[in-house]
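Exercise 7.
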Amino acid sequence: MGNDFNTAGRAVYLPAVNNSFARQAVITDITDRPFPAGLTIDDLVYWQKNRLFNYPYLLHSIGLYKVGAVDDTAVSRTERGSAVILGDSSGFQIGQGTLKGLEGFSANMPASQAIAAWNGASDVRNWILNWLEAYSTYAMTIDMPLWAAVEDTQSPFSNCSREQLLRMTQDNLRYINVNKQGNTKWLNVVQGIGNDDTEFWWNGVKNFRFSGWALAGGAGTRGGLYQLLYAVLLMNEDDAFAEGLDWVHVLGVSTLDWAVILTALQKNLNKRNPALQVSFDTSSPFQSGMMREEAYYLPTLTTDPRTWVFPKKESPQGYIYIGSKDPFPYSCSPLGKLLELGHLNVSDVDDAGQRKQYDTVSLMMLVNHDIWVTLKAIEMANDLAFGADSEATTPRTLVDCIAYINEVFDIAYSKGDWRKYLSEHKALFDAHSQSIYG
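Solution. The predicted structure, written as tokens, is:
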């Protein structure tokens, strides 16, 4: 697999590819619109061999599709082994009751009815398992939503207790254990709200050992760095990162400070298991490019934590740019260097009769650009934070966090009281979680 970015020994970012991009990449005809010379629509599919850049990692969720669907997309066409595809099993959509084609569920239904409905959804479980086995390199197990038991939601499972949600999840794990086909490597999802919930959930799922783990909710980044470290070190006590348990995915984060923190986490886990890989994901470049029509540009990273962000501006759009040879103003990416404003601005009106100059291909080009900038900024952040001069180039909070992460792992590996150490430094870990993003 080709890779134009330095990810060796680092946590890898998985862009969460949406189904619109994946589908349009195989059905869109660009013969009647301006497009950079020498390129085709296939060159926008970054995880496959192309003329722009190659990065062989992505996340794709089955929750984007209707139950039973097997759509023809750039993801389903990916040659096995040419990219690492992490398949999301749609636990979030199941929990929300928004998985298309999932019948028999309604908001806030009685717990007994929700459990009975899920127990009867064997066709859904079978479809999820078969889809993930067919298209993914790694796949997340089917977890039921712990957050539904404690948060004010419209979830069909909102009246279930955490014990009931855990039992349904255990049934799903047994189903996967019996029916898995060996085409994908399964990651058991560890959930939490607070540390007590994480311990409860971990003790209920830890004996289902597949190929690694996915950390969600309070066991991931949602509870901040203190809770993430608590979950990982708790799991470490049960030898969760031994040989063969080689992938740890942290759901729903892609900020630069977390990219560095997760690399620090991987470096410490690699001391026991050199083959282990940490990954993380968001759909941010797809939301920015396809929904908000924004272009990222590279940050200037300094010791000021406020600079550790993805700067972005609305991409130039207007009738005056149709046919324009003016260069795209954010030309840091391989595509950006080739783009003219006339490549983006091509339409007078959209299908609804509204004045709009960007078509679907315009948005896909913005996404390709935004993904490259995201990956390059993550590479830059890691280069600084783990470089020889890190204290002079990296925000103090991040430097301290990396040092404390190293220390708490040293304590844990020597059978010391890591819980006490975490508690004593909780204020620093909490400060990290609030320093930039509030």
